[in-house]
Design brief:
This protein is an alpha/beta fold. The chain has helices at residues 52-65, 80-89, 104-116, 127-135, 146-159; strands at 7-15, 28-35, 40-45, 70-74, 95-98, 120-122. A 6-stranded mixed β-sheet has the order 5-4-1-2-3-6, sandwiched between helices. Helix 1 (52-65) packs across helix 2. The radius of gyration is 15 Å and the shape is globular.
Length: 170
């Protein structure tokens, strides 16, 4: 695996759950970086079933620990609440809202291509994330693939040209 420490950008991506009970979906939290080698690096999977304040604290801590450039969050279910919760923990963290307009399969397709090209590396094993990656079948899932969604948001931000379904060529 190439050296991942020479990163040009790092993002923390969130796919927030709307509740935090034992049977709730997880809040997907994945940290990814873009290397000087134009490869993507999955640095951490911090997904959890916690209260909004607790997962927001986890996100802000990851932002500082990984010296991230911004936090991304899918806001289809939470709207402005996601940003408001993050701002209660730390109002200085750069934030970008993501509106998921296309289906999960279409959103994941360019990221899947990056993996097929050998342009994405995991710095260690992430069993739960990798399980979701390997078992996701469009249109037939019992639970939301929150970890996978957060991964897709992060790598799309870092490696897919905005507004187009093309990959950055470095």
């Amino acid at each position: 695996m190439p050296e991942y420490r020479d990163l040009t950008r790092v993002v923390v991506a969130i796919d927030p759950a709307v509740s935090a009970g034992p049977n709730s979906d997880e809040t997907g939290i994945v940290v990814c970086g873009l290397g000087v080698d134009a490869c993507g690096y999955v640095l951490d999977d911090l997904s959890c079933r916690l209260s909004p304040e607790a997962w927001a604290t986890r996100v802000v801590n990851a932002y500082y620990e990984y010296q991230a450039d911004r936090v991304l969050a899918e806001v289809n279910n939470g709207g402005d609440l996601v940003q408001a919760v993050l701002r209660t923990v730390d109002p200085r963290v750069p934030y970008k809202a993501i509106h998921a307009a296309r289906g999960k399969y279409l959103r994941a397709e360019p990221v899947s291509s990056l993996y097929a090209q050998g342009r994405v590396f995991h710095i260690r094993r992430f069993p739960e994330l990798e399980e979701q990656m390997c078992t996701f079948v469009p249109g037939s899932f019992d639970r939301s693939p929150d970890r996978l969604d957060a991964l897709v948001y992060a790598l799309t931000e870092l490696m897919v040209v905005p507004g187009k379904r093309k990959l950055h060529a470095y």
